[in-house]
């Protein structure tokens, strides 16, 4: 009988059977203490509870407590981020890990040095601040070391009362000014202090203002409040999350005013409702009454005056903002304008609602009335800078013409610089070359040129001896817009005298705090079209970040993983992975080695259980092939986070009029070339992770470094 049927029938009258009527007085007598069979109820089981939050309460988070012996218990947080664990079976100390099912946030970690006795409870919040404390207990800043199998950092060795007390003191010293501004005590315990039940107040407002950023050799707790004018290097500006940081050697977040805190809280409350308001506006094409109060009349992002033109995904019928929690990248000095990220998903019958896949980056402002709207970055051109790390795996040993050494596997990291034409009649059509300067780039900056009307500009191959005064020729371009400023292992020797390679690897601790780049743009005649500030929403990372993720099996992989180790080119394909389409496409003896116009590739998404700070979400793939005739074919495709197969087709025309194709890999004497398959993923905060598998078919084939 369902609930509606019960309601329709109404309550039933109370009736006692003869047996029930006979036993009732005995039961009442026993309850009143009569007879000799009374007993004391056992005490309630020991419990640990708290709130999972990133500034927004994280609902449906999987919370796992691991004790000093590796035993675990689990719970799921409710709609307010609250969870409760029964810990009677655990032995202190413990580490708690909360995983966001939407993919919007990194793994959150907390620790307890002692557990409550039976019948008692303890508080253990799990948020950005508690994750920072856990990271301060480790030598490398990865709090997941505490629960990783085989880790040298153990719960029993790291989670001691002294260590946790010192880590908390270090955190409080760094946040002293923000603690005061948000009404919290100078000695604040983010683990054990009851968390506010109203979002974006006191401690939750403080959590809104900070972010944890893994950068490879170091992990920082950065602040989203304004940088001081005296900001220099990251090490002098942010808190390094490792066990060498102490209250005496950590910098201090600059003070903010009460007005700033009030504006920041207002901003966060606005962002909480923004996805709901933006959805009908996007469905209406970014115009009309549905956008009133959502999009400012003067809106402009990267030259686009319609938000659905700026991000065409917003027009998709599969667009989902369900559970989206926008976050702040940075703000202006008084907190009345902010660069924000609005996570969203593209959901179909074959994909899940993962909000870790896409984010709309835009600028919002507080209007004179005190309300907020989307104003955009106001840039007149389509410009962006994005942090990236890549693993490049070669299936050949031919000599790289850039290095003079055999192809070898390596990791690199750097910056993807995108300068895209917006087509005929748009402002971007006038752009022909550009000069970029900023954190992590050479003092002389970088030069990029236009390859064709559709591709983003590409870096020049070799640094020019003098500033360019006219557009570089297509032949002088490198074929990439990815600048490499770091590599691993340290024994790898990158090519020299290449515009897209640093001469020495970056030390991210000495990189300039902040991520603002200056783009100077030129037309076909060399006329200066202006210099524009472009904010990279991510900090710098080095190549050891990609290396550590790969070693933790956190990357997506081609096929089911067999292809990585089971196939050797150029020999005859056999054994595990030999039937995979990727193997047959990349290897010269494969069934797909001849010229192709399309490829259906299979792959395995990133592991959701890898012990890394921020699990990866796959976003797409790319096929690149480049022959000696100079036709560089690059075909990307986007897909959902659980996708395991995708078809990519070659569509376009070479400069000589030849239709695009994926050039044959089995004809080195006739056409030396390379083929590359790339899988793409990203962290919740937007750092791109690529894995490239490459085969070059001759020593004189174009370099794929």
From TrEMBL:
Highest taxon above the source species: Bacteria
Keywords for this protein: Signal
Signal peptide: 1-33
Protein name per UniProt: Bacterial Ig domain-containing protein
